[in-house]
Amino acid sequence: MKKLFSLLLIMFPLMVSAQGVALNTEGQDSAYVQSIVGRSQKIVDKLEIKDEVSALSVRNIIANRYFLLNDIYKVRDAKKKAAKDAYTGKAKDLMIEEAEKECSAELYKHHFEFESALSCYLPAEKVEAVKDGMTYNVVKVTYDATLDMIPSLKEEEKVQILAWLKEAREFAMDAENSNKKHGWFGKYKGRINNYLSKRGYDLTKEREEWYKRIEAKKKKK
Q1: 3-state helix, strand, coil in the chain (%, to 5)
Q2: Distance between CA 138 and CA 148 in Å, rounded?
Q3: Is 60 exceeded by the pLDDT of residue 2?
Q4: How many angstroms separate the CA atoms of 35 and 29, rounded?
Q5: What is the average pLDDT score of the chain?
């Protein structure tokens, strides 16, 4: 029995790949579906997936993720509106707070499904690329800029900075709009700045010197 179960676990990604993933558009506005499918396809195009079934499945997994997030936030918004219409004062605030908590719980409940689904079709580095595609590539841009600004960073500091940026990305992936996505990165950038300051870096001075180096490079061109 154990051998059979292990074999099924090994075969599961293959079975999923062969079947493909369908686009789940139930209850979604047609214009919204078209927009999300287009956005998802742009991410997939950069992955250079050769197998057509896999490429389509990955696109649908990404699009379905957006649909799911949209549904979760629509439920939250409906509950908040109902609370505002039916209650006042502290009771209203408590109902709104409860709607936010339920939304957060639902997001957490479904968070790890996405990476698991992608991993049936993509290696780890391409799963990372999908996450970056959904979050405007902020991890790489911020990490590269930080290393360029402070060339003297130690290896353990680089590791910590990258870890925090990737943690921010996990929250940003589930955020409801671009402002909220950037907000998560902003929160973690503040944490990184505090960390570096405590490690003895003068960030104002580092930034000024960085700008000077950038200007010097421009003049050489």
Answers
A1: 80, 0, 20
A2: 15
A3: no
A4: 10
A5: 93
Q: What's at 173, amino acid-wise?
A: M
CA nearest neighbour of 59 among 32, 108, 111, 22: 22
Rounded to whole angstroms, what are the CA distances from 112 to 55, 75, 103, 107, 118?
Answer: 20, 20, 16, 9, 10
- Rounded Cα–Cα distance for residues 186 and 201 (Å): 19
- The Cα–Cα gap between 177 and 198 comes to 32
pTM score > 0.85 for this model? yes
H/E stretch holding 78: helix 52-86
Residue 147 near residue 153, CB atoms below 8 Å: yes
Handedness of CA 167, 171, 173, 179 (dihedral sign): negative
What interhelical angle do 89-118 and 52-86 show, nearest 10?
170
Work out the average pLDDT over 179-193: 98
Whole-angstrom distance, CA of residue 200 vs CA of residue 65: 42
Residues 6+ apart with CB under 8 A from 134: 43, 62, 173
Under 8 Å between Cβ of 118 and 180: no
The arithmetic mean of pLDDT across residues 150-178, rounded, is: 98
Q: Comparing 3-7, 76-80, 217-221, which segment has the lowest mean pLDDT?
A: 3-7
What whole-number distance in Å separates Cα of residue 63 and Cα of residue 36?
6
Taking residues 96-123, report their average pLDDT: 98
What mean pLDDT do residues 181-206 have?
98
